Amino acid sequence: GVRGRPTQRVTEDKQEIIDYIPLPSSLSHIRTVQITDLYKVTSLCMDVDQVRWQDRPWAFKLTSYNPKGNLREIFILDQLSHSPFVIQLEAIVIDRDNLIRGFLTPFMPRGDLADVLEMRHTDEGYTNHDVSTVALDWSIKLSWAHQITSSVADLHAVPACHGDIKPRNVLIDEAGQALLIDFSPVGITKAFAAPEILAIFTDPEVEIEIEITAMADMYSLGLVLYVLAEETTEVELPLVWRNEDTPMWYREAAQKVSRRRL
After folding, report:
1. Which CA distances in Å does 161 have to 72, 77, 117?
2. Superfamily designation of domain 13-106
3. Is the pTM of this model over 0.85?
4. pLDDT-based confidence at 135, cuts 50/70/90?
5. Where are the alpha helices (DSSP H) in the chain?
6. 242 contacts: CB under 8 Å, gap ≥ 6
7. Using one digit for the tens of pLDDT, what is the confidence trace for 5-21?
């Protein structure tokens, strides 16, 4: 596109090897849009495009090569429509044969949590090596921590698990709220995956989707909260602090908890 203007219509052409799934009747209450009504602006990542529809920008997550995973994500988003800190499903994208080609969610121009942290530090002239600097007010970080944690709690209440909780899967909307996305990841992110998942990830006999648990999600969530607290995009494992290396924010939090228990 030129200056955000769409330059091509999305077509139905796709490799025939993909077995698209018909739209089930249980999802008939969700709005649908024909894929040919979308105009592609740009690619956002491997399986997500920015498109225009009804004169507004949207994120279009394509079915790609994981039709079952895409359908699973639609079901999860539908069940989480009440959650204020989960990306909202706007419409299911179908073709003329009523086969699911993906779905639309609001486009977030501010980007994800990692983008926001990097941008704030760049604006302030900080780097990841400036360990004592704080570019974000703690009230903002605590608010985002609450929102991200709430979204994971809502997901686990479905019940369902995520499998790839990381800063790149947390978008910041224009109101400044954190929204969890990507509920059917095609893989894991090693830097944020739980040890028990890393141990079996390369085993071809194991279906990772089955092995993902709420406990594994909580491990990943903890690392995301660490990234948020430390305002870093780098995580060096294992996270074990000794003596003076323990961050001040962690010491203060631990002291408050200890005082409450006494």
Report:
1. 11, 12, 26
2. Phosphorylase Kinase; domain 1 (3.30.200.20)
3. no
4. confident
5. 67-79, 113-124, 138-156, 195-198, 208-211, 214-230, 248-261
6. none
7. 555 666 665 545 789 99
